[in-house]
Every structure is written in structure tokens, then in C-alpha cells.
Write a structure and sequence with these properties.
By secondary structure, the protein is mostly helical. It contains four helices and no strands.
């Protein structure tokens, strides 16, 4: 089946397309990752064809996702000290009447 970009763009304009957008974004990220190989892509196809996620798989996925999110967190030592960052200067606008 050939991907129809126009059909996908039209579907993403629908007000109820939040989950579609979330899945497309997640899939785009996954496809850029070399660790997301052919065997994992095949499993995604099987899930879509099956139309449901087994409860045990959903539970295991939630646990793995939690660990994955933790691995992406920036260690506090690498974050800038916000006390050392100068506050942005306010933008001044001159107003007046030159009478």
C-alpha cells in the first residue's frame, strides 16, 4: 500500500486526530533511530493488523517506556544554574504625544 501524504495531511487537520498525530510523531522518531530495526517494525505491523494490544504487552511497554524516559533525562549537573542566568531585560517602548 502506497503512502498518501495528502490523505495523511488531511486526516491530521481533523479535530479528533490527536492520537494520530502522537503516533506519527513517535513513529517518525523511531524510524530515525537505528535501534528500531526490521523486527520491531514487523511487530508494529502485527499490532496494527491485530487491532489490539495484549494486556501483558501494554503493561511491559509502560514499564519499558518509563525506563526509556528516564534515560533521556538530562542529569542535573548538566543543567545551567538558573541563578547565574541573567533575567531578560524588559522591552521599553516610547509612547507620547509631540505636541
Amino acid at each position: 500500500m502506497k503512502l498518501s501524504t495528502n490523505e495523511l495531511l488531511l486526516a491530521l487537520r481533523a479535530p479528533n486526530s490527536g492520537w494520530l498525530a502522537a503516533l506519527v510523531c513517535a513513529l517518525e522518531e523511531a524510524l530515525l533511530d537505528p535501534d528500531f530495526g526490521e523486527s520491531q517494525r514487523r511487530l508494529v505491523h502485527q499490532l496494527l493488523d491485530h487491532g489490539a494490544v495484549p494486556a501483558a504487552a501494554a503493561s511491559a511497554a509502560n514499564e519499558r517506556l518509563s525506563k526509556f524516559e528516564q534515560s533521556l533525562e538530562v542529569p542535573p549537573a548538566l543543567l545551567p544554574d538558573l541563578d547565574d542566568v541573567p533575567a531578560p531585560r524588559p522591552k521599553l517602548t516610547l509612547c507620547g504625544n509631540a505636541a
